[in-house]
Amino acid sequence: MNRIGEGKAVIKPFALHPENSRYFIFRDKPTVLITSGEHYGAVLNGDFNYDVYLQELHAHGLNHTRLFSGVYHEVPGSFGIKNNVLAPAADRYISPWPRTNVPGAFDGGTKYDLDQWNEVYFTRLKDFCAKASQLGVVIEINLFCPFYTEELWDICPLNHRNNINGVGRVPSNEVYTCKHPDLLFYQDALTQKIVEELNGFDNIYYEVCNEPWVNGVTMEWQHYIAETIVDTEERLENRHLISINVCNGHQRVENPHPAFSIFNFHYASPPIAALENYHLNKAIGLNETGFAGQDDYTYRRQAWEFIMAGGALYNNLDYSFAVGYEDGTYQAEGQPGGGSRALRKQLGILKDFIESLDFIHMIPDNSIVKKLHTLNGTGYMLAQHGKAYAMYIGGHGEADLLIDIPVGEYDVEWIEPVTGKTVSKERVSHPGGLMRAAYFGYKEDIALKIIRV
What we know:
Blueprint: E1 2-5, E2 8-11, E3 15-16, E4 24-26, E5 29-31, E6 33-37, H1 50-59, E7 64-68, E8 99-103, E9 110-112, H2 119-134, E10 138-144, H3 150-154, H4 181-197, E11 204-209, H5 219-234, E12 242-248, E13 262-266, H6 272-276, E14 283-288, H7 296-308, E15 313-317, H8 341-355, E16 363-364, E17 369-374, E18 378-384, E19 388-394, E20 397-405, E21 408-415, E22 422-430, E23 433-442, E24 445-452
Parallel strand pairs: 6-15, 7-10, 10-11, 11-12, 12-13, 13-14, 14-15
Antiparallel strand pairs: 1-2, 3-4, 4-5, 8-9, 16-18, 17-20, 18-19, 19-24, 20-23, 21-22, 21-24
């Protein structure tokens, strides 16, 4: 991971792949990020045992997690989430800024001093990054998040009622704008501090703001924070990628700020966002999903479809992680989304499948599929023309397709996404033109791999 030279540790941070910048390279290996992760509070929640959590991801071959910096946190009951990692008890919330002895904060505690740093927080943040690094887990450091309700702004340290510095006397829909220089000063300072503290890690990238389409976040402000990251790293050893969270669903992005290398979407199923932004020649991610029931199949299918449509990153919001259940075994009826050990195992199978391919040299291309018959299903194809083809078919019972590929000897393999087992494999001497591939009798979904011998 590190090279030592002239007394300094020189690292090669997680980056876009030099041969295909729609994917990543990490520790000299082509990489996609796939995970089912906790609700972003691993550091700010003092009761959360992130050692156990990271080991659970690693056990299933997952390599990603998303982390909120601690500016934003929630309260018990937010969004109907039971045992919400992002909603610590007031006395277990760990902020980037220390509490003082001045009473009167909205949560019943003492107020914060925004001119000081909370060393407990930064020690915990760096330890989390170090533990993740040891396990090969890449962290999205999400710096800011808008306030979905007034109650969430009421408990934020940047709110004037919670700090001794007199800043933040603004409505919640103006917090993430450039209208208030005193507030922007502290947002800028925190960004610089985190970037400085984490510069030596190779397993991180930054996202400016979670869901900036909510409650008044301006693009001008997002660009300002992105430029702060860039400017800060100009005087440091290492450069890290920066992500922008674009929207729910899909949107074609045109002429983005050059600081952004990752374009993340939420609830992007079907995976139109990956396909319609292929022109950016950058990594496209689905870094939050959920709110679609608790069935593993729902999120397994979303993951396969997004990655097979050319996506580089998938993160399911996993409600089976909770305080006391950092191994991901928490079960509660009525959660707004899913998550389970079984799902994490299935996502590990997807990661293994992709890594078995030379995916850096593959492109999403359904045009070569001239016929596809399934029962209530869809298919997404990655292709390295003349060499390798891979397809995911979400549906039930049967898959029958015709694929236009050149002459050659091919190994045709059908794989169960639930188990990772090969259920059929044969070698085919293909004369060129349309090749038929069919498999019948599967329960929920099936994957196809065709490799030229």
